[in-house]
Design goal:
The complex is a heterodimer of chains A (about 450) and B (about 140).
Chain A: H1 9-15, H2 17-25, H3 39-49, E1 95-98, E2 103-105, E3 140-145, E4 151-154, H4 155-161, E5 164-172, E6 195-204, H5 205-212, E7 220-225, H6 245-248, E8 254-259, E9 262-263, E10 273-275, E11 288-294, E12 309-311, E13 326-328, E14 335-338, E15 345-347, E16 353-361, E17 367-373, E18 381-382, E19 384-385, E20 395-402, E21 407-417, E22 441-447
Parallel strand pairs in A: 3-11, 15-22
Antiparallel strand pairs in A: 1-2, 3-4, 5-6, 6-8, 7-11, 8-9, 8-10, 12-13, 14-16, 16-20, 17-18, 17-21, 19-20, 21-22
Helix pairs in contact in A: 1-2, 2-3
Chain B: H1 2-21, H2 72-79, H3 86-89, H4 95-109, H5 116-129
Chain lengths: ~450, ~140
C-alpha cells in the first residue's frame, strides 16, 4: 500500500504552487488568468491564515501567503520549529544562522531605531573571533604596498594624529536577501536582516593613505583582519577583500574606532575596523591590522571565483558559473524594510488605519521613492521619504494605509533609487553565491474580527 | 487522489493550529534545525529556543546534528572539522552545486581534498539530504543537472 508522506503547506507550495493552490485552496490558476481566490478556495485559505482576505481578488495564484512563508517570499520551509535565538552579553535576541562561524541576523522589526544600537547590529563572521586585545591603544595597523612610506600606526596614533570624523553609515552583508533566490544560492540564508546603520567614528581612510604617500601605481586596496581561520591554520587569512582606490579615498570610507560613541564591541571588530559604506560588508574588515595598497585588483581570499561576484551576462539559475563572466559586486542594490510592525502582528478589532514606517537604502545611490501596497501590488501608495543624515545613511520612510475591513493583509514595501532602479517582486540575476537579492519586503498582518 | 487530499487537509489543519500557537518572533526562522541541534530540554512551543552554550564560535555539533543516512559520518567529519553543520543544513543544492561547493571549500578555505570514493559518498549524502527545496518560480527549461 502506498504510504502518504505528511507534507507541510510550505513543501506543497515549493514543489508545485499551482497544484498546491488547487489541492489546498481549490484555487485554479489555469481557469482564471491570475488564479485569484474563489469560492471554497477562499474559505480554505482564509482558515489557513486565520482571517478573511479582503484583497483576495488581487492575490496571485501560486503565491504562498506571507503568513505561511515565514517572513520572506521564498523563505525556507514553513515549519513550526523554532529558530535558534542569540544569547550573548550585550546583544539582542538575533536569529542565529550558524554558530561556527557565528552569524546572526536582526529581525526587521528590531531595526526600527533611526540609528541601530550596538545590541541590535547583525553579526557576520567568516572565521573565529580573535582574542580581545589587552591594550587597545597599542593595536597596530600596517599600511604597505604601493606607498612611499610604510606606516605602522597604533590606535593611539590614529586618535592623536588624524582628524576625527563621525558618520551614520549603513553596513550590509553582500549576501543580504539571499534566501529569496530560486533555486537556493550557496551561503547563509539571510532574509533582510544583515543590515545596520550605526554611528561610526574614527579617521578617514583617505587621510591615512595620503599620510603613507600613495604611489602612482596604487589602484586597489587589500584589507586584513586578525580573525583566525576556521581550520586553525594560522598561516591563512580568513578573508581579505579590498576596493578600488577611488572608493577607499571616498571621504565616508573610514577606519572606525568607535561604534555609537562607545569602543567597538569585540564581535563587531574591536578595537579598529574599516567601514566602507554602501559596498558589501566584507570589504569593511573587522579587527583591522593591515592595508596592503595594490598595483592591481586585489586577489586575497574572497576576491576571486564566484565570491562576492555577480554574473555579467545573465546565467541560468542553478547552472554552473563561468568564472570569466563573474564581476565584483560593488554598490549594494536598493532595498527597503518595514520596521514598526513585526511580521505576524495581530491588530485589534476595528483597526482601519495603519501607520507604516521603515528604512530604505541603495548602496552608492539615494532613495527617490518608496511605495507601499496592502493588496499584493495591485495598487501602490507613495510614502514620505526623509533625506539621509549624511551620505550612506539609510533613509526613513513613513506611510499610512487604510484597511477596509477585518482580515488578513500583507503589507508590501518597495523602494526606487536615484538611478531609477526599483526593487523587484522576486529575486532575479541568479549567481552561485546569491548576491544582490533585493525582492520587496512583505509582512503578514491580521486585523481581528 | 482523494486519500491524499484528506491527508493534506488534515496536515494543513495541524500546521495552522501550531502556526497560530507559536510566538510571532519564531516565524522569522530562516531554516528549522533538526531535533539533534536543539537544546536537550525541549522548549515550550511559545518560547523561542535559545543557544544554551555561549556562542563564541564553537559549534558543539555531533554526527547526530546531521540527518541519518548513508555517508553521514564521512560528511560530518569532512565539514565539521572547520565549521558547524548549520551552514550545511541551510542549503538546498543540486549535485552539481554541491560538487562545486566542495571545490570551493578546497580552493578557498583549505579543506583537505577527499579522494574520489570519499567525495562520491559525501556528494551522495548531501544530494540526498539537502536537495533544492524550492521550485519557487516556474520550471526552468534551460536547467540541466
Amino acid at each position: 500500500m502506498k504510504r502518504f508522506k505528511e507534507r507541510s503547506i510550505g513543501e506543497l507550495y515549493r514543489d508545485d504552487p499551482e497544484r498546491a493552490d488547487a489541492l489546498v485552496f481549490g484555487r485554479q490558476a489555469k481557469t482564471n488568468r491570475r488564479g485569484f481566490l474563489k469560492g471554497a478556495g477562499l474559505t480554505a485559505v482564509t482558515a489557513a491564515v486565520g482571517g478573511a482576505i479582503p484583497f483576495a481578488d488581487s492575490m496571485p495564484g501560486g503565491l504562498i501567503p506571507a503568513a505561511l512563508a515565514q517572513g520572506t517570499p521564498g523563505a525556507a520551509p514553513a515549519k513550526p520549529d523554532a529558530p535558534m535565538m542569540l544569547k550573548m552579553d550585550g546583544k539582542a535576541e538575533l536569529i542565529v544562522l550558524q554558530e561556527k562561524p557565528l552569524n546572526a541576523e536582526t529581525p526587521a522589526h528590531l531595526l526600527d531605531d533611526e540609528v541601530t544600537p550596538n545590541e541590535k547590529f547583525f553579526i557576520r563572521n567568516n572565521g573565529n573571533l580573535p582574542e580581545a586585545t589587552a591594550n587597545p591603544k597599542a593595536w597596530k595597523i600596517t599600511v604597505d604596498g604601493e606607498v612611499d612610506n610604510k606606516q605602522e600606526l597604533t590606535v593611539e596614533d590614529l586618535e592623536k594624529k588624524f582628524q576625527q570624523v563621525s558618520f551614520k553609515l549603513q553596513l550590509e552583508c553582500g549576501g543580504n536577501g539571499r534566501s529569496g533566490f530560486s533555486p537556493e544560492a550557496r551561503g547563509n540564508q539571510w532574509s533582510n536582516g544583515a543590515i545596520g546603520c550605526a554611528e561610526w567614528s574614527g579617521v578617514r581612510l583617505s587621510d591615512v593613505l595620503k599620510a603613507a604617500g600613495l604611489k602612482s601605481s596604487a589602484v586597489y586596496t587589500g584589507h586584513y583582519g586578525a580573525d583566525p581561520h576556521l581550520s586553525g591554520d594560522t598561516s591563512k587569512p580568513t578573508i581579505s577583500r579590498g576596493v578600488r582606490l577611488e572608493k577607499a579615498m571616498e571621504p565616508h570610507s573610514i577606519i572606525a574606532l568607535r561604534m555609537n560613541g562607545k569602543p567597538i564591541p569585540l564581535v563587531h571588530g574591536a578595537p579598529a575596523r574599516l567601514v566602507i559604506p554602501g559596498w558589501p560588508g566584507s570589504t569593511s574588515a573587522k579587527w583591522l591590522n593591515r592595508i596592503w595598497v595594490r598595483d592591481k585588483e586585489h586577489d586575497g581570499p574572497g576576491m576571486t571565483g564566484a565570491s562576492y561576484r555577480v554574473a555579467k551576462v545573465p546565467m541560468v539559475p542553478g547552472g554552473k558559473a563561468d568564472n570569466a563572466n563573474m564581476v565584483i559586486l560593488e554598490s549594494m542594490p536598493v532595498r527597503s524594510i518595514i520596521t514598526n510592525i513585526a511580521h505576524g502582528t495581530e491588530l485589534p478589532a476595528g483597526t482601519r488605519k495603519l501607520d507604516l514606517r521603515g528604512h530604505a537604502w541603495a548602496g552608492e545611490n539615494t532613495i527617490s521613492a518608496v511605495h507601499v501596497s496592502i493588496d499584493y501590488g495591485a495598487s501602490w501608495k507613495a510614502a514620505e521619504v526623509k533625506a539621509p543624515a549624511n551620505k550612506y545613511a539609510w533613509q526613513r520612510w513613513t506611510a499610512a494605509v487604510d484597511l477596509p475591513s477585518a482580515g488578513y493583509y500583507e503589507a508590501w514595501v518597495r523602494a526606487t533609487d536615484s538611478s531609477g532602479k526599483m526593487q523587484p517582486h522576486v529575486v532575479g540575476n541568479w549567481n552561485p553565491q546569491g548576491y544582490g537579492g533585493n525582492a520587496m519586503h512583505r509582512i503578514a498582518l491580521l486585523v481581528k474580527a | 487522489m482523494k486519500l491524499e487530499f484528506i491527508h493534506i487537509v488534515a496536515g494543513l489543519l495541524v500546521f495552522v493550529a501550531i502556526f497560530l500557537l507559536i510566538d510571532k518572533q519564531t516565524r522569522f526562522a530562516p531554516r528549522p534545525l533538526p531535533s539533534a541541534a536543539r537544546p536537550a530540554v525541549p522548549a515550550p512551543a511559545a518560547t523561542p529556543a535559545v543557544v544554551e552554550r555561549p556562542p563564541v564560535g564553537e559549534h558543539g555539533d555531533t554526527v547526530e546534528s546531521l540527518p541519518e543516512g548513508p555517508g553521514r559520518e564521512e560528511t560530518f567529519y569532512a565539514c565539521a572539522a572547520c565549521h558547524g553543520t548549520a551552514i550545511v543544513r541551510q542549503q538546498g543544492m543540486t549535485r552539481l552545486q554541491w560538487d562545486a561547493s566542495i571545490d570551493w571549500m578546497i580552493e578557498r578555505h583549505g579543506m583537505a581534498r577527499p579522494d574520489q570514493a570519499e567525495r562520491d559518498v559525501i556528494l551522495d549524502y548531501l544530494t540526498t539530504q539537502f536537495p533544492p527545496r524550492a521550485r519557487r518560480g516556474r520550471d526552468n527549461p534551460f536547467l540541466k543537472n
